[in-house]
Write a structure and sequence with these properties.
The complex is a heterodimer.
Chain A lengths: L17 E6 L8 E7 L2 E7 L12 H4 L1 H5 L9 E3 L8 E3 L2 H18 L4 E5 L5 H11 L4 E2 L7 H10 L8 E3 L6 E5 L7 H14 L3 E5 L5 H4 L3 E3 L6 H14 L5 H7 L5 E4 L18 E4 L4 E4 L12 E2 L5 E4 H9 L6 H8 L3 H17 L2 E3 L3 E2 L5 E2 L2 E3 L2 E5 L1 H4 L4 H15 L8 E3 L67 H10 L7 E5 L11 H9 L12 E6 L11 E4 L8 E3 L13 E5 L12 H11 L18 H7 L29 H7 L3 E3 L14 H9 L16 H10 L9 H10 L10 H5 L7 E6 L15 H4 L5 E4 H7 L6 E6 L2 E10 L6 E5 L16 H4 L37 E7 L39
Parallel strand pairs in A: 6-7, 6-23, 9-10, 9-21, 10-11, 23-24, 24-25, 29-33, 30-32
Antiparallel strand pairs in A: 1-2, 2-3, 4-5, 4-25, 8-22, 12-16, 13-14, 15-16, 17-20, 18-19, 26-27, 27-28, 29-34, 31-32, 31-34
Chain B lengths: L11 E6 L8 H11 L8 E2 L7 E2 L3 E9 L7 E9 L7 H4 L6 E3 L6 E3 L9 H5 L6 E3 L4 E3 L5 H4 L12 H5 L5 E5 L6 H9 L15 E3 L24 H12 L2
Parallel strand pairs in B: 1-11
Antiparallel strand pairs in B: 1-10, 2-3, 4-5, 6-7, 8-9
């Protein structure tokens, strides 16, 4: 029998009337996308093949953009709270009323005490606007979410190498021969990493080692997976350092040329200059010139000693940094045998990995025939690379020892000579910057006053006690206690402490908390239930809320909306102008700087406004100087779109680097160009300027690159960036804690500062382990980010929630056997802070002492437009309830935040727990009353037939 | 029952590289996105924001922990994307009582004609790969079309005429081509990497192929690697002496 005649299939249907490019915002990766529009609706979103970040690919999140636009949780109009806070009872109001209310509240604060405004943003990418707005308002109480995300990584990198991972640097993916990846969240920078790993494995020349307690996506395809015990990465890395020193496998030439290895450090215990660099009268660091046997400029002298003890002209003594390094890390405490039990990695394995790294670095070096000139003027015929690369992120960062651990990772890279060389780690412009960048926080009491603008930005990089934001007796000036003695290098602020501190009135009460896109009553808070209580708690005497006013802006009905008094509804990412700026969180490649814009692809069908436009309008209504013209008219009448083009940080330098100058011919520096956005749109909404070959490596010391970076406005001068093995700013804090200098910590903080501000990287146990009984809480508990979800956003997405609709607790085989657990059983998970109930899945893909779950899948019932019986609420759960916002303390202890003592980074992954089998009923706990949905935020539960409307185009002929 | 073409001019299909698939679900979601407005539109999602959301997906990703003799006792996590394999002898077609399921003579793509599908589900029972998706709302069977309305679409740039799952795959783990042509890139890849059929014993001759995970790059022996001939050791003075000698060269 012959087959029946085949029906006609339309193989060339019209896909789109119009294709518009813009920038994705389904996560922070910021890929270029093409939005295919048909009859004004989204037919398809795919990756833009011309975009440097994703080169045409797009992940699950980005591919689900249509459903984010269709989300039932989209807010519809401005809202005023009418029920008790937290009930979710709102009434719709006009934008006129909303803006008038906000202006009245904020205006009153600005006229009396601007500190009483706390302005914090979540996963925002417009910090170049929001930070400036806070300065103009005059409040120091500003930050984005970096303090609870990855400030340890960013700060350790910036203080050590003048760059960092992800947005500031990346492995030389296409040349490296050995990749070490530590603790990476798989929803961030995800397309570049996935693409690069695919290329790396297909190239077949490199070994990929993943160090991670959990074997999910990236680790699953690693050549070798080391299931390390959480929080011990620093110990493993320093054992590798020990091995490299022991086997003499370090790049001495690189160390002397590009790092402070040969800089002399004063050895004067008990004195005010102990541990500081020996400097001349100009402040120039000194080394010991072995030719002349005298002190010499450490940066430009070739023949410096790297070992020994030297007598200075004043009779004092000093040693070069490398000498200190040898004494520190050759110590048996860092021998593989000494760290094996603690890290869970066998000593023989550590030795082997060290040997593999050394063999690649020193026996398989890469040379590129690209001549270049270093900052001293010396010409080099080739670029030499030690092709060992590292990528690390949040698994390192989210521990209370993360700053020093990340410093240890950079030390390893530096000793190998693999910073910004072929096959190693590479900076992404505008990085490197001086280590640390020369930007100081402002907001000391004397810099804040009624109606005053802050003299500088609220965030920066202290290089000593004099840069802290503390008052005369050493108390914090900021509500989050960033840049105080408790967390001196809190370069990204500490959003995770704001609600606790404001509720306690420490260091002072707030009047208004203004949040943007930060889900602080749920998955972005530690100690979540208590945080909800603080948000609704009233002062007994006055009956007023202890945090009197809360303004919140978000596009969606997140858990936080219910805790606001005034809700300013934002647009989706497809409905707005935006810029992805070199001055904020760049999207550059190692081969060249890049930035990008978002353009509105759709017009909102609701009464919502882009948050940035609203902020600029509030700036004008409040009379903030930079948002008003001389005659009082708005400085940026068209809102953010205007600001992106017109704002200049320095003459000729603004948010976007491309097509500047009145003729649009300048890049980097140039007068504002009124046609700039049109030029971006013509170029698919991005700008990418590949560097000439001679600038592509050794950027920290490359004369051509440094001159270019200065021309572009990225660095203040073309001086080399010297890699800081020894971090002198840390020692300055330590000296203060030892009783030296004009600004010293109050007595209760001295031991802590003295202990943790070690100028050489070291390891200490995560705080929670030393504060609770490890035998009572024998397990570690951490989260991983699923690749198909971004924080809490994905659950409102009809497609993504079918992939991750609830989260099991993954339990290692060893623990399951010990507790007689089977797949699908329910367990109680207890920490010092509380207990939760969750359903388990057994795995052999994790460290034997670690349980884990997917991040932010659990939802409060009623939030995100989901039905009250949605699995996200019924079976999903958060570990957050178990995590204290403060360290467990005994009477008399200083109640420190659960954070890194140096940067204030939230220590999410320090958590210790115990498991016990739980009985029915089968529902996760704790449960809270369902939130009432805001007016008109609802969706009938009928089937979703998106796309049916395009079917008419498929003509059946 | 429905007959098959005696042969097809091409054997279009996918090659999926399990060595680099990280299980990110990009292919599954981008497939759903394209096809929601495509040949089989819509891909209905029932109870989309409720207790049991359940939609039509042409491509689903499974994650397994497997232990393999080659890996010295340590298990692997393998991510496994599953979709229609466009078999050369598809039981889903031959079992179809109305001729709605059919295999195209031109390129071998297995499709369902929604106009004649009666929703009897015999095909989904017949398919051992679980690749068929019943749309309860439309009452018809749906399945991977290999993006037939994309791969030939003259309204798209030529470079975009590949299945959505292939175009979007961040890791580069998915490839599309003519597996009937031994000289095609995909056929060569299969030959080089030992690409294999799923359930070959069943005799349906899947066109799609899977590339197995590469052997892990074997660690060197666990030995005390003092890599430089000559000296090593934890004695600080000896280390510092080595530094001095090296720097004075």
């Amino acid at each position: 029998m012959s087959p029946p005649a085949e029906p006609h299939v339309e193989t060339s249907p019209v896909v789109a009337d119009e294709v518009r490019t813009t920038t994705c915002y389904m996560c922070a990766c910021r890929c270029g996308i093409r939005v295919h529009l048909r009859n004004g609706e989204i037919r398809y979103i795919d990756g833009n093949p011309k975009h440097p970040v994703n080169r045409g690919v797009l992940c699950a999140k980005g591919s689900a953009g249509i459903m984010q636009q269709m989300s039932p949780a989209k807010l519809i109009s401005p809202l005023k709270r009418v029920g008790p806070r937290g009930s979710g009872e709102f009434e719709e109001i006009t934008w006129d009323e909303a803006l008038a209310t906000a202006t009245e509240w904020l205006g009153r604060i600005r006229k009396s005490d601007p500190r009483k405004l706390g302005f914090f943003t979540g996963r925002d990418q417009s910090q170049a606007l929001t930070g400036f707005w806070a300065s103009q308002f005059g409040t120091p109480n500003y930050a984005a979410h970096g303090g609870f995300c990855s400030v340890n990584m960013a700060a350790a990198g910036l203080y050590t190498i003048g760059g960092s991972f992800w947005e500031f640097g990346e492995p030389d993916w296409d040349r490296t021969k050995y990749l070490l990846m530590f603790g990476v969240a798989e929803d961030h920078a995800s397309n570049p990493i996935k693409s690069a790993l695919g290329r790396l494995k297909t190239r077949g020349e490199a070994k990929f080692v993943s160090i991670n307690p959990i074997r999910t996506g990236y680790s699953a395809i690693a050549d070798e997976w080391l299931p390390i015990r959480p929080g011990t990465d620093g110990l493993l890395v320093l054992a590798l350092v020990h091995e490299l020193l022991r086997t003499r496998q370090i790049d001495l030439e690189y160390l002397v040329r590009y790092t402070n290895a040969a800089w002399l450090v004063h050895e004067a215990p008990g004195e005010a200059h102990d541990g500081l660099f020996v400097r001349d009268s100009e402040g120039c660091p000194q080394g010991w010139d072995t030719r002349s046997d005298t002190l010499a400029d450490a940066r430009s002298t070739e023949s410096l000693a790297a070992t020994g003890t030297y007598t200075l002209p004043d009779g004092g003594r000093a040693r070069p940094v490398l000498d200190l390094v040898a004494h520190r890390y050759l110590d048996p405490a860092f021998a593989p045998e000494a760290v094996a039990d603690r890290t869970g990695i066998a000593a023989a394995t550590i030795r082997r990995i060290a040997g593999e790294i050394a063999a690649v670095a020193f026996e398989q070096q890469i040379t590129l025939d690209i001549p270049w000139t270093d900052w001293k003027g010396e010409r080099h015929a080739q670029m030499t690379g030690r092709p060992v690369s590292v990528h690390a992120m949040r698994g390192i960062s989210a521990h209370s020892n993360g700053f020093q651990t990340c410093r240890a990772i950079h030390l390893l890279q530096i000793l190998l000579g693999s910073i910004d060389c072929p096959g190693g780690f590479r900076y992404k412009p505008p990085y490197p910057r001086p280590a640390p960048p020369p930007l100081k926080p402002s907001g000391r009491d004397e810099e804040v006053g009624p109606g005053q603008v802050l003299p500088g930005p609220p965030l920066g990089f202290p290089s000593g006690p004099e840069d802290l934001l503390v008052d005369g007796v050493g108390n914090a000036c900021r509500i989050d206690k960033a840049f105080s003695w408790e967390h001196p290098l809190a370069a990204h602020g500490m959003l995770h402490t704001v609600i606790t501190n404001a509720w306690r009135g420490e260091p002072y009460p707030l009047d208004t908390l203004f949040l943007f896109m930060a889900n602080m009553s749920w998955n972005s808070a530690m100690n979540t239930a208590e945080t909800m209580r603080m948000l609704t708690d009233r002062d007994e005497a006055s009956g007023e809320y202890r945090i009197p006013r809360i303004i919140y802006s978000d596009a969606y009905a997140s858990e936080m909306v219910a805790y606001a008094d005034l809700v300013l509804p934002d647009t989706t990412y497809l409905e707005r102008w935006d810029c992805v700026s070199l001055t904020d969180r760049p999207i550059s490649e190692a081969d060249g700087p890049a930035d990008a814009i978002r353009q509105p692809v759709l017009q909102p069908d609701r009464d919502v406004r882009p948050f940035q436009d609203v902020l600029i309008e509030l700036g004008h209504r409040l009379g903030l100087p930079a948002f008003c013209q001389g005659d009082g008219a708005p400085a940026y009448p068209e809102g953010y779109k205007d600001y992106i083009v017109k704002r200049e940080y320095a003459p000729g330098v603004g948010p976007l680097a491309g097509w500047r100058g009145t003729d649009g011919q300048s890049h980097g520096r140039g007068a504002p160009n009124e046609n700039q956005l049109a030029r971006y749109i013509e170029n698919d909404c991005h700008w990418f300027a590949p560097l000439p070959d001679e600038m592509r490596f050794y950027k920290h010391a490359n004369a051509a690159y440094l001159a270019h970076a200065h021309d572009m406005g990225w660095i203040g001068n073309a001086a080399p960036v010297v890699l800081q093995i020894y971090c002198e700013p840390l020692q300055r804090f330590r000296l203060a804690a030892q009783g030296h200098g004009a600004k010293q910590p109050p007595a209760q903080h001295r031991d802590r500062v003295n202990t943790y501000f070690d100028p050489l990287p070291y390891w200490y146990p995560p705080f929670e382990e030393t504060h609770v009984d490890e035998t009572a809480f024998p397990l570690h508990a951490v989260t991983q980010r699923p690749m198909a979800m971004y924080h809490s956003w994905g659950s409102q997405n009809a497609w993504l929630r079918q992939i991750h609709g609830w989260n099991p607790l993954f339990v290692p085989v060893r623990v399951a056997e010990e507790l007689d657990l089977e797949d699908g059983d329910w367990v109680w998970v207890e920490s010092h802070n509380g207990r939760i109930k969750s359903k388990i899945k057994i795995t052999d893909g994790c460290n034997a002492d670690t349980v884990w779950t997917w991040n932010a899948i659990g939802k409060r019932r009623g939030a995100w437009g989901l039905s009250d019986d949605a699995p996200e609420g019924a079976r999903g759960f958060l570990l957050n309830h178990l995590i204290g916002d403060r360290l467990p303390s005994k009477a008399g202890d200083v109640p420190y935040a659960n954070a890194d003592p140096i940067t204030g980074q939230a220590a999410w992954f320090d958590l210790r727990v115990r498991l016990t089998k739980a009985d029915a009923p089968e529902a996760s706990e704790p449960q809270f009353p369902p939130l009432q949905r805001p007016p008109r935020v609802n969706k009938d539960a009928g089937p979703l037939r998106y796309g049916a409307q395009f079917k008419q185009d498929l003509n059946h002929r | 029952m429905t007959s098959l073409p005696t042969s097809t001019d091409k054997k279009l299909g996918l090659v999926i590289d399990l060595d680099i698939c990280v299980g990110c679900h990009a292919c599954a979601v981008n497939c759903k996105e394209w096809n929601s407005g495509g040949h089989s539109a819509p891909m209905t999602d029932r109870d989309p924001y409720g207790a049991e959301p359940s939609g039509v997906w042409f491509n689903r990703i499974h994650t397994y922990e497997v232990t393999n003799d080659r890996d010295a006792g340590q298990s692997r996590t393998v991510h496994f994307p599953r979709s229609c394999l466009h078999c050369e002898e598809p039981a889903c077609v031959t079992v179809c009582p109305t001729g709605a399921s059919y295999k195209r003579a031109e390129d071998g793509i297995v499709l369902v004609n929604a106009d004649t599908c009666i929703g009897c589900k015999l095909c989904s029972w017949a398919c051992p790969y679980g690749a068929r998706e019943f749309d309860e709302d439309d009452g018809v069977m749906k399945k991977c079309t290999l993006c037939i309305d994309k791969i030939y679409n003259e309204n798209l740039d030529e470079t975009d005429r590949v299945p959505a799952c292939v175009a979007t795959c961040p890791a580069g783990a998915r490839h599309f081509g003519d597996l009937g042509d031994d000289s095609s890139d995909v056929s060569r890849m299969v030959a080089e990497r030992g690409g294999y059929d799923l359930l070959p014993d069943m005799g349906y001759k899947p066109v799609n192929k899977y590339l197995p995970p590469r052997p892990r790059r074997a660690p060197q022996q666990e030995t005390d690697t003092a890599a430089t001939p000559g000296e090593s050791g934890s004695d600080v003075a000896s280390f510092l002496g080595w530094v001095d000698r090296m720097l004075s060269r």
